[in-house]
Amino acid sequence: MSSCSNEIEEETDHKSEVEIYNEKATLLIEKIISRREDCSCLVLNSTEKQMEEMELGVSREELQEMIIKELDFASADELESAMHISTDFQLKNSKIDPSIKIWSRSTYDSLLIKGYEDNLKGLLKHRLDVIRKMCPKWVLMVSKPIFDTNYKYALVDIQNEGNCLKMPFFIYNLEGKSRNR
User: Does pTM top 0.90 for this prediction?
Assistant: First the structure.
């Protein structure tokens, strides 16, 4: 049993922090989306966009303090480092159903703008029709995870497009269990 554990540790020791992040983030997002049968499009939010959206109702400092406490970071610098590592993350080599479209937040926002402009021109009844045509089911918005230093827990913001209610963020462990916040 201990030799198996050592082999896993040795595999991880040879990977860069970015490689470890990409692997863990991909696995977590796969788990999240595998539980959503009603999703036809996935939008990946940046951690910065996630922070902006989570700031509704609390200051940036309060939000940072809350995340530092939840993910057991020693300082704000550790949090910033954990956020920075997600910057270049792209969902690659994923086992997500290939029929699910995966978009960046900027692609999604561009489609919203196009829908709004087409709606003003009278070409669409509703500004979301552009997106609804491409995604007949729900659009699921998932932030790039912010992992604790041991990659045991991750803060993730998950939203369904079209839902007027802002859901709380989730703290996931790698087994897929979550704690609402």
Answer: no
Q: Residue 89 domain-assigned?
A: yes
Q: DSSP letter string over the chain?
A: -HHHHHHHHHHHHTS-HHHHHHHHHHHHHHHHHHT-TTEEEEEEEPHHHHHHHHTTTS-HHHHHHHHHHHTT-SSHHHHHHHHHTTTT----S--S-TTSEEEEHHHHHHHHHHHHHHHHTTS-SSTTHHHHHH-SSEEEEEEPPEE-TTSSEEEE-EEETT--SPPPPEEEETTS-EEE-
12 lies in some domain: no
Q: What is the pLDDT along the chain (181 residues), one digit of tens a residue?
A: 444 444 444 555 688 999 999 999 999 998 888 877 778 888 888 777 777 766 666 788 888 898 899 899 999 999 999 989 988 888 876 788 888 889 888 888 888 888 878 877 877 777 778 888 888 888 888 889 999 999 999 998 888 775 555 566 778 887 655 555 5
Within-domain flag for 7: no
Domain count of the fold of the chain: 1
